[in-house]
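Deliverable D2.4 — example input (C-alpha cells):
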C-alpha cells in the first residue's frame, strides 16, 4: 500500500486551518499542522525531504513568518510546491515569495488550495520531461 503524500499546513487561525486541512485530507493527503513559524521550522527539519507540499499563512503573532518558513522548506526540499495564504496585499509575494509558488488571497475556497497544489505539481512534472 502506497503512503499518501504529506503536506505541511501552517496557519494560526484554527478555523481556517481545520477547513484547509480537512480539504487536503479529503484530497488524498496526509497533513502535518503547525500554528506558528517555530513549529513549522521544526516540522521542516524533521520531515522536509518527505514533504509533498507546503501551505502556509504569511503572518502570525511570533516567530519566523511564512516567507521564512517557505525559504526553509525550499532549502530542505528544492522542488517542494508552496502555496501562500494571506489576507495581506500580494505585492510582497513578488519580492519575498520563493519561485514557482502560488499566493491565494483570503478569503478563498479550500478547494482552491488543492487546485493550486495540483497546478504546481503539474508544472514540476512537465519540467522534468
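Example output (designed residues):
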Amino acid at each position: 500500500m502506497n503512503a499518501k503524500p504529506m503536506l505541511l499546513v501552517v496557519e494560526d487561525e484554527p478555523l481556517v486551518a481545520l477547513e484547509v486541512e480537512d480539504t487536503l485530507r479529503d484530497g488524498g493527503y496526509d497533513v502535518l499542522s503547525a500554528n506558528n513559524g517555530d513549529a513549522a521550522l521544526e516540522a521542516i527539519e524533521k520531515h522536509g525531504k518527505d514533504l509533498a507540499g507546503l501551505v502556509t499563512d504569511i503572518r502570525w503573532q511570533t516567530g519566523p513568518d511564512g516567507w521564512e518558513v517557505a525559504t526553509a522548506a525550499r532549502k530542505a526540499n528544492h522542488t517542494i510546491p508552496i502555496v501562500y495564504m494571506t489576507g495581506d496585499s500580494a505585492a510582497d509575494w513578488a519580492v519575498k515569495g520563493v519561485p514557482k509558488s502560488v499566493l491565494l488571497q483570503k478569503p478563498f475556497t479550500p478547494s482552491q488550495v488543492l487546485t493550486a497544489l495540483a497546478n504546481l505539481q503539474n508544472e514540476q512534472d512537465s519540467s522534468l520531461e
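The first strand starts at residue 6 and ends at 10.
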